Amino acid sequence: MKEFLSSILIIGLLFIGLFGFAALGHSMNHGQADCLTSTIFNAPCPNNVISLAQHHISAVQKLFNVPVEMFLVLLVSLVAVSILRFAYLYQFLILRSQFLSQRLQASREKIDHLKHRLISWLSLLEHSPSF
């Protein structure tokens, strides 16, 4: 059921992302404050669907052309790796503690069984005749 819902969600997001710009009303009667790409290029949205798509794609390309410092990339990757490492260690410690508690329970049961056998053997010797 999870796989079905996730595939429906992904298909829906792709459908909206690919065909959403054609369904929006991009007419020349709205101001530049209504469209993000109009603010970036300081020009109104085009009326033609093809030029509209080119206009928005070029705006996205322009946003992704921002230079990023190598120190920032290394810092973000170090933080991400550290978070993943601590999550893995936390999960490992939880699993290890569950394993240890299961082994401790098994050893307690074994000791209780041996204690019961010893007591039953001693009870047999208590009422036995002496030689």
At a glance:
By secondary structure, this protein is an all-alpha fold. The chain has four helices and no strands.
Residue share in β-strands = under 5%
Mean pLDDT: 77
Q: List segments where confidence is low: pLDDT < 50 over at least 5 consecutive residues.
A: none
**SSE order in H/E notation?**
HHHH
Number of strands: 0
Structural class: mainly alpha
Computed Rg:
35 Å
Give the distance, in angstroms, between the N- and C-terminal Cα atoms.
76 Å
The largest pleated sheet is described as:
none
Walkthrough of the structure:
By secondary structure, this protein is mainly alpha-helical. The chain has two domains: 2-64, no CATH class; 68-131. The protein is built from four helices and no strands. The termini are far apart.
Helix-strand blueprint:
Layout: H1 2-23, H2 36-41, H3 49-64, H4 70-126
Salient structural properties:
single chain; 131 residues; 4 helices; 77% helix; 0% strand; elongated
